[in-house]
Amino acid sequence: MSAEVDVIVIGAGAAGLAAARELSRRGCSVTLLEAANRIGGRAFSEEFVPGEWFDHGCAWLVGGETNPFTPIATEHGLSLSTETRPLFTLEHTRLIRNGRRIDAAERKARLAYYEACETAIAAAAEEGRDVPLSAVIPQDPALDQPFRTMIDVSWGDATTDRVSTIDHGTGEGDLGYRVHKGLGTLVAIWGADMPVSLNVTAERIDWSGPQMKVITDKGTLTAKTVLITVSTGVLADERIRFHPPLPDWKQEAINDLPMITENKVGLYLRPGFITDADRAYHATWTDDGLSAKVDTAVTGGNTAVVLFGGPEALSLEKEGPAAMESFATDRLSDIFGSNVRKDVRRSIATGWKGNQATLGSWAAARPGRACQRKRLAQSVDDRFFFAGEATMTGSKGTCHGAYFSGLRAAREIADKIAPAMPEAGLTG
Q1: For residue 426, is pLDDT > 50?
Q2: Which three-class secondary structure state does DSSP give residue 131?
Q3: Nearest 5 degrees, angle CA 122-CA 308-CA 327?
Q4: Of 342, 340, 360, nearest to 350 (Cα)?
Q5: Which of 159, 160, 266, 281 sits a CA distance of 20 to 30 A from 120?
Q6: Collapsing DSSP states into helix, strand and coil, what is residue 223?
Q7: What confidence category does residue 3 fall into, taking pLDDT thresholds of 50, 70 and 90?
């Protein structure tokens, strides 16, 4: 590691990698630190068997052709699933209640309720009303699934009382494309040429003197500026300490953007079990409160992915991978029947709440505090800067949102210390 540089970037996820690349291109010397033993952050793919991949975290090139990682995938020769895009829309989602597919009349009523909720939320967001979803959506327990299933998956353990209308209403709804080898694989390949110091944990930032000092478990580094791209969960838990402490307004922004938890389980099934007719996206729930979204190999292969939030996301993670696999297999049984259990060959379960590098899946604004995303993005004393999905509004919780936040922060820093260099393009 270099002893003294222009910028120290903490975190080698999409935000940190994009920032380091842009800063280097703008003529700044950079040290990029990552506490884990790999780059990518919450973009991480694992191979079940040769050719079958599972994304632990972000999995979508949201927006498809407009996503900056789409041309990057093409540049690196990674194939994308584009033709199945419509199957993940509400119109084509299969709705399963208590292990049976609901009839046309029930489907029509439930989707009408779903649309009424989305319309009410969008209207509140358009008016600038930052209140809990529960304050604006119609209350109808007889019809509120699959809307609540979507909330559980989209907002993890945050209930409708804890989700901001601005946060939800400004979200990007088009899931876009999938990378056949995984979005995590794409990010790892894209960032592979960036010099990164892995297994280095930033423990304290001392900004009491003229130089910024980053004290790590491997020694002390100095720089003109520091860019922090770690999650709000890590910051709120004071895994990185500051001397002097962060200003109150910055600490409030961190606390108002807590991490939520969505978990998922990938189930690798007997080859040939999932037929072309079975490839679909499902919302499945039971009347006793269990719900999940299930992707039964929509983009091909033999892997089903079960996504769940709500109380299950936290309680099942505490119980461990075996309990998570059992829950996921139960949801798969809702679709295929109980005999599916004998066809499960392998499972992979995430555990984002307990992941010490993030302490959650992504940041959700407390109702009334969505404005804090912009405040989190603001620099402190023009000496240390912040990036990451939590600093974004429309593209919060996404890989490309983190990417754009890294570019934004890098350009702010470069304008301070290397203003003569030109701006870069998007794909880099």
Answers
A1: no
A2: coil
A3: 155
A4: 360
A5: 281
A6: strand
A7: low
